[in-house]
Amino acid sequence: MIEERSESEGPAGQGVDIPSDWFAAFEAAARRPLEQRMRYAFIRTYKPVLDDAPYRSFDTMQEYRRWCEDNLPDWLGYGRV
Amino acid sequence: MGAFDYRQAQEIRDAFARRDVRYLFIGKSGAILLGFPDTTQDADLFVEKSPENGRRIVAGLRELGFVVSESQEEEIVRGKDFVQVKNGPFDLDLVFAPDGIERFDDAWTRRIEVEGFPVCHIDDIIRSKAAAGRVRDQESLPRLRSFREYWLRHGKGQAQ
Fold it and tell me: Could you give all domains of chain B from N- to C-terminal order, each with its CATH number?
């Protein structure tokens, strides 16, 4: 698989490569108008527990992360690594 | 309730602009606005934590059709770190203190405007996901970092 190589570095990405299938996906997305990109991107599926209350608030992000770990099913991926 | 769509994003943009709300799209929804091809459910907004901005947010949310009680208004004005609202036309996460970003003003300086939508710079989106350290974030980071390379190479990383 051919990979696009980049020399650029920055605080959030340390000179990473772009696999060709991802590069093709980025190119395809760049050709779409924003409205279409959003239509493809935003989906609606029920997330157990998370979607069961109309409003939640947390004093700190730490409190929110802890609540997610204690209450949400692991498979939703909200637990910390 | 259907999925969040372009028209609803425009409604947020316009309602918040009328009230001078200080906010930025962040998270995967922000990355999608920048051109990142992926899927997500919610719109995540990084909002400046100040009483005045909180009042403006509440007014904007009510205009958009969200039901905000007095106690919820008080919380938003006071500035919790994280508020999740699912009692309106779409789901919205209000993040007052995203992981990995020190100050709203810093992110605001680096913001990118996409069709009038204020969006966090891709570096801030990546920083916040890396700092959050959740399983779902770790899974999306390699692709986001590749997108960052693509995005910068195409000259899209200039702040407003």
Answer: 6-153 (3.30.460.40)
